[in-house]
């Protein structure tokens, strides 16, 4: 068996970035930039007013107050979307609206609340510094400046920024297509009538959701029965995807044929087992030139191993720089016993009290109990060398989401 870190390193060494594609900006939410965004304009394009008020020469307002107001001649009014027609000289002012270009000669704006206008004269009751309430040309973005770096995930905030630069299309990494195959005679699909000795196929649908969550496109290949011919036929369909994920059939049972079948299909095997629980029977290699993951058949084991190994690989392929979920320290509220030599991932519920993280288990940790995942918002990660961790000990916790944190 190899360690979790060794497995992750070996996997990522086999993953390549997806090709780039161009998307209209409005369709790019959640995608990853494949090239930098560089501004071709200054933003704002000119000095603009940050307030409704009066554009003035700052020196003219020296000493202005309620008791000693300053009187200036209004030479024009400048609205947003309109260029000034006149230059502001000493003793002059231009009425100006928020977002309007500041006239030449003016170097400050007096807020409208600090002024009183009567006809062509404005009286100012406040002194302003040079540059007051003026947004400088190129302050938000300068022409030629790199605004967004390749590799970032596009959020609504990035879309707004890109739109402000007048860019309508962006280059992003393509989404990886992931073929998903469940195996086992004991499985019935959701549209099939289930016999007394069968359970419903939850793995395909859970894994498909994890693929979507990681930015990929799932391709469900159905269920392969426990015979070599059916396995070979259905696995071969995965050649048209970018990744192949198989759940079940990778252990040591009499009918676990996945290893034998993929070897006959020409797999280049990298490893078969990882020193972890749940998820020790984890296979990884390349088949048809595509990364292939053989995940355990137990539902929880399948979900846990996807999180630790498949998800980072998909994120890397899709261009992401951050591959792993955040890990924090939390105070364990249960005493836990475990097997030495295996890194253990327990399903946990993280909460916060007085600015500190606390974590407790979700209940029975058997790898067949999906409710242990449903209740979880984190994995409690216990190191290989320990056999018991007492309540009150600080442990590493991998956050799955902030849902339920309180």
Keywords:
406 residues, alpha/beta, Molybdenum Cofactor Biosythetic Enzyme, Chain A, Molybdopterin biosynthesis moea protein, domain 2, Molybdopterin biosynthesis moeA protein, domain 3, 4 domains, six-stranded mixed beta sheet, 7 helices, 28 strands, elongated
Q: Nearest-angstrom radius of gyration?
A: 31 Å
| CATH topology (fold) name of the largest domain | Molybdenum Cofactor Biosythetic Enzyme, Chain A
Under CATH, the homologous superfamily of the largest domain reads: MoaB/Mog-like domain
The total of beta strands comes to 28
Count of runs of 4 or more consecutive helical residues: 7
User: Ranges with pLDDT <50 over ≥5 residues?
Assistant: none
Distance between the termini: 38 Å
Using the coordinates above, name the CATH class of the largest domain: Alpha Beta
The average pLDDT value, as a whole number, equals: 94
Describe this structure in words.
The protein is α/β, with parallel strands linked by helices and 406 residues long. The chain folds into four domains: 4-16 and 175-317, MoaB/Mog-like domain (Molybdenum Cofactor Biosythetic Enzyme, Chain A, 3-Layer(aba) Sandwich); 21-42 and 141-173, Molybdopterin biosynthesis moea protein, domain 2; 48-135, Molybdopterin biosynthesis moeA protein, domain 3 (Beta Complex), CATH 2.170.190; 327-399, Beta Barrel (Beta-clip). It has seven helices and 28 strands. The chain has helices at residues 4-12, 156-164, 203-213, 228-236, 258-264, 299-317, 371-374; strands spanning 20-24, 37-38, 48-49, 53-56, 70-78, 92-96, 108-111, 115-118, 121-124, 134-135, 146-148, 169-173, 177-183, 187-188, 199-200, 217-224, 243-247, 268-271, 276-277, 283-287, 290-295, 327-332, 336-337, 343-353, 356-361, 378-382, 388-389, 394-399. The strands form eight sheets. It has a six-stranded mixed sheet with strand order 7-4-6-5-9-8, with no helix packed on it. Helix 4 (228-236) packs across helix 5. The longest helix has 19 residues, at 299-317. The radius of gyration is 31 Å and the shape is elongated. The model has no long low-confidence stretch (mean pLDDT 94).
